[in-house]
Amino acid sequence: MKSAVLTILVIILFIIALFIGNFALFAQPDDSGAKTTVNHLLKKENGTYMDVIHVTVRGGTEEEIGYELGKAGIDEFDSFLLPFADIKYGEEKEQYIKSYDDVLYERMLGIKKAYQLSEDDYSYDASFPIYISLYPSCSALYFPPSSTKDGHAIVGRNMEWDYTPDLDAFTGIEDGNFEDTIVSEMGTLVHVVEIYPDEGYASLVLGTMDLLNGIVDGINEKGLYVASLQDGDTYNDPLDDLAGSTSTGLNFMQVLRSILEHCATVDEAKKQLSETEVFMPYMGQHFLICDDSGDATIVEFDNETRDIIFIDYQDTPVPITNYAIHLRPDISLCQPENPDDPHDDYLRSAKLHNYISGHEGDFTTDDAWAALKQVEANADAGNKTVDRLLWRVVTDLTNRTMTVKYFLKDGPINNQTLKTRDLIMSEPFTFSLER
After folding, report:
1. pLDDT of 178-196, one tens digit each?
2. 2-6, 392-396, 419-423: lowest mean pLDDT where?
3. Among 116, 120, 283, 347, which residue's Cβ finds the most Cβ atoms within 10 Å?
4. Where would one find the signal peptide in this protein (predicted)?
5. Main-chain phi, psi angles of 305, to 5 degrees
6. What are phi and psi of 368, to 5 degrees?
């Protein structure tokens, strides 16, 4: 009897101890790890075109940040990993990333955890969890601090792409028709991502395709800005080079993310790029990279050697559209390929150059908005799919802020000759790096 009572007493004490231990465990504040918030800024409704989701990750190791981005991608964007054709490509790519970019490598380990893959699983590409595709087109304009009224460095950017007014809501890739899906669904789902790691540079980006790397416009806490724009004169690589399949290097978005994570100035970005081989899936790209000191460079690529070409600027306004400037440095010698198309690359470039040369006095953020308004994609060509401005953003590199207006839907035609429309845009959203 005494033995039974003693046994019951031990069990009761064990349960009490377990309860106290668990209570203490749950009562302790969680002071470690990354904390993620998700806000749906815009939703496709009442005939509007796109969903915009804002993801913020605060604190944490790089692996924890990767896990949080992976989970947010799965939960909010239906992100998925592309498979490698053979695990040898996956292992080779991961080893290259480990040697090239320690931040991306550690975040990949977190992505693998989010997708419940083991660390040594090389069958899927954890470096680029994709949700949908959009490639950066359009126009941009940099005003160095020496040229602005308030002494701030400013960048304006139009992001444009094909627009299908009667597009159905995105439901995923059906029947393996990957290429058709990404073309028809471009720009219908986009993100804003802020990352504040325990160590390293905080960053703020606008983009699409992949929360981990999908940068169209981005700035870090040091005031370094990066943007990618389509360059019709530059080589492009096959579809497989985007991620997975036989790819073993980094696509251009991954390279831009790496610059934001590791570089504080244009000079540092140029040095890193000089040590990098950049892959160009689908279409050629060139980059605008600038900082809050007045330094800027346009990064382009030789089609035969694939050598990087830097076109450097100091304290000079810089316009850029969608042709290789190193091949045609003098816009006055460039004849429009489509004179009747207001979105012709050379026409837009000439408008931006003329805006700069004809401007009196110092520039302001209002000038950035006004100049980009003149070159927005807008005209209807009579086709089911036409070009449209998807967002316009003005970035203050000095304040580390980005103010963006998103395309909602078409308004009425305002010019019957050009077939241009009043575009209905969202109210401006302003995002600010907090350190």
Report:
1. 455 555 556 789 999 999 9
2. 2-6
3. 347
4. none
5. -90, -20
6. -65, -45
Q: For the whole prediction, is pTM greater than 0.90?
A: no
Q: CB under 8 Å to 89, separation ≥6 — which residues?
A: 122, 245, 246, 247, 248
Distance CA 52, CA 39 (A): 9
22: how many CB neighbours lie within 10 A of its CB? 10
Asked if 389 and 411 count as a contact pair (C-beta separation under 8 A), the reply is no
| Selection from 76, 55, 56, 73 nearest residue 110 by Cα | 73
Average pLDDT over residues 51-78: 96
By CB atoms closer than 10 A (0-12, 13-18, 19+), residue 139 is buried
Structure confidence at residue 9 as a pLDDT band (50, 70, 90): very low
- Asked if 58 and 196 count as a contact pair (C-beta separation under 8 A), the reply is yes
Angle CA(122)–CA(123)–CA(126) in degrees, nearest 5? 70
Write phi, then psi, for 241 (nearest 5 degrees): -75, -10
Sheet with 295-301, edge to edge strand ranges: 35-42, 51-58, 189-196, 203-207, 217-220, 225-230, 285-290, 295-301, 308-314
Residue where the block lists tokens 């605060």: 58
* Residue spans per domain, the chain: 35-432
For the chain, give the mean pLDDT. 86
pLDDT > 90? residue 277: no
Class for the domain spanning 35-432: alpha beta
> Which residues are registered as beta bridge partners of 402?
395, 431
